[in-house]
Structure formats: C-alpha cells, structure tokens
Amino acid sequence: MNISLSCLSDKGKERTCNEDAFIACLNLNEQNWDVKATDGFVPCNETGTLIVVVDGIGGAGSGDVAADIAIRKVRETFTRSSVEDAIKKQAYQELMKKAVEVADQAICQHVEMDFDTMGMGCTILMAWLNDHRVHITWAGDSRGYIFSPRQGLKRLTKDHSLVQQMVDRGEITQEEAFIHPDNNIITRSIGDCDVDKQPEYVEIEINDGDVILLCSDGLCGYCSDKDIEKGMRMKYGNTMEMSAKLLEMALNAGGGDNICIAIIAVACDENLSQIHLSIWQKIVDFFKIKRPLVEKM
User: What's the pLDDT tens digit per position in 67-117?
Assistant: First the structure.
C-alpha cells in the first residue's frame, strides 16, 4: 500500500494563538515523526502510518499547552516495540486507547502543578493506517471522513457534542446543528475532569483511491459536509492542493477558529491508482470548463 500525505494548520482570522496541532509518523517502524507532506505516493510500511489531530481548549489560554502535551505523549506511547506488539496481537484499539489515557494523565498532572491552567484540555483524533485498513480513535468534535469519487464523502466519527446529542434525540436536524448557537459545546475531551474522556473507536477497510480526511472544527464547524466534499472533488489527485483548498474554504467561510487539516490518499496499487487519479482529474477539468463549480463560502 502506498500513501500520499498532506497536513497543515492555521490560527484562522480571529485567534492570536493556534491551539490546534498535528503530528504524523509516516513509518512507525522507522519512527520518522514530524512529517508534514510527502512528494507524491510513498510506501506504507507494514507497521503503518499514524496521524494525530488535537484541538486545545480552555485553561486561561493554555489550550496550546494541552495540545502540545497530548501530541508528545502519543509520540512517546507509539514506540517501535509497542507498535510491533499491538500488530502481533491485533490490539490496535488497545494501544490507541492507551495513548489517549497517557495524554490525559499528563495534562491532568500539569494542571495539578499549575492551577492557572485549570480547565485546559483538548480533543483528540487519531488515525492508524495499516494493512489496507484505517483504525480511528477520538474524543471530542474533531472529525474523520473518508472520500472517494464514486462514493462521495462519508463521516467516520460522531461528534461528542451537545448538538449531536440533540440530533440523536431527534430534537434538531444535522443542518440545524451546523448553525446552532451551542455547536461549540463538547461533551468529551481529555485533560478535563468535568467531562467524559472515554475515546470511541472505529475500523474500516480502505481501497485504492480512497482519501482519509482528519480535521478540527475549524474546518467542519465552518464548512458543511457538502462543501467539504465539493472542495475535495475539485482537487482530487493532489493531497497538498486538496488540503490547501479546504483551508482556503474555511478561511473564506469566516475563519473564526484555529484550523487543522490532515489528508491521506491511499494507493493500494500505485500504478493503478495513478491511472485512476489521472482519469478523474480529466473529468474534473472537463466539468470546470463546461459547468463551473460555484462554492458556498
């Protein structure tokens, strides 16, 4: 399996500090962390690729501290030996859950030593690609999606938020949740003793041409799923252009929050995938000429 990766983050138009963060390890066996993008498709080792997105919250402006602690603790948990052991035992969920727990404990310990940071924490979203599957763990309202030209955009995670609970109870629709005044209230995070911090987990098969999107609410809180799908279709075939397009859309839609975007395109057969991407790009270019796409910003 080969992958193409692009990760970026922006403080947005209104924030002075960026409390969103990401980290990506392209090859967990080689422990090559801090990768932001690949030049085209590269091999995905049998230990796989890990991408983490965190969104800092609360604590007298110290959400960035919580985000940094979480990123560091996930990295420390995913050692070469722990990864190999998890794969051998098929214990992907267990290792990802452990990383969340270690990060949570570290943030809580930091708060105990510095009461000025009381209330700080972060949401967390992790995706581990391995052996034609993606394992996703999350707590909070950062989202994981899967996209393909044929199937469109599908949400893989469910927000841990007040408005999502209202949707589940049938009180409001997803469309109403998107514009609800309380859509920024989350019900799960790590580092905050007052909320549930138990992460959820999902595992799905990934196929040639699939694209995995991880993002903070700086994107999905300002752009609807329909608009996100439109942006991904426009730039399908180039992960860097796709992530840049989604960032542009989030900023144009208001950019009132920090933004974090990580995109991973999958090529199970690199040569075959390149053919698929080439054909799809020609289709996209054709419709740009015949019927220009108009974006809702």
Answer: 999 999 999 999 999 999 999 999 999 999 999 999 999 999 998 888 888
Residue among 203, 226, 214 at smallest CA distance from 142: 214
Q: Which of 147, 89, 152, 128 is nearest to 1 (CA)?
A: 128
Q: What CA–CA distance (Å, rounded) separates 195 from 207? A: 36
Q: How would DSSP label each residue in 112-166?
A: HH-GGGTT-EEEEEEEEEETTEEEEEEESS-EEEEEETTTEEEE-S---BHHHHH
3-state secondary structure of 253: coil
Q: State the CB neighbour count (10 A cutoff) for residue 170.
A: 7
Q: What are the pLDDT digits (tens) for 211-253?
A: 999 999 999 999 999 999 999 999 999 999 999 999 999 999 9
Give just the sign of the alpha carbon dihedral 8, 68, 250, 150: positive
141, 153 Cβ separation under 8 angstroms: no
Give how far Cα 290 sits from Cα of 232, 234, 249, 282, 284, Å.
Answer: 19, 14, 23, 12, 10
